[in-house]
């Protein structure tokens, strides 16, 4: 497996890969001063001719940057599922996505491409997460929640069932979502309220 991004987020992905006994061949990073991460070589900026038969994970937590990078990648994308995660057999998980330690994905959840399901988060039955979503540590999505592309659900957030959260939203840590959220919203609080609608 190859990674793109020699960051703290990459360390968690490396931990997941090692738990699955999957070797990491190298890490791309545009910061040429970085030479290795946890004794894995950092091989410089991305290029398609470096180990072209290896799969790749974009190991960057920022949703927008991850989306920008994805369109330029020539390698196939892998996925990483930590063995401690509880994932129902009916769950669909798109390429490039990662599921970290102790996360729970329940029946008929659908996870898009390049999604981060972070440590100890819970995604309940029939939830649908679009591409480039990040569910931060200890966040809880109750059943049948829809989350739009590029949205960040902050750490410890609780989303009540049957709600729709728009694309490119920022849900602050610890929020409690009890109603639908429009696209491009910045949201915070218990109960959560929309603080601002950003431009597309």
TrEMBL record:
The record marks 126 as: Increases basicity of active site His. It holds the Pfam family Hexapep. The active site is at residue 125. Acetyl-CoA binds at residue 134. Residues 2-70 form the PglD N-terminal domain. Substrate binds at residues 7-9, 61. InterPro entries: AcTrfase_PglD-like, Hexapep, PglD_N, Trans_hexapeptide_repeat, Trimer_LpxA-like_sf. Belongs to the transferase hexapeptide repeat family. This is Sugar O-acyltransferase, sialic acid O-acetyltransferase NeuD family. It comes from Runella slithyformis (strain ATCC 29530 / DSM 19594 / LMG 11500 / NCIMB 11436 / LSU 4).
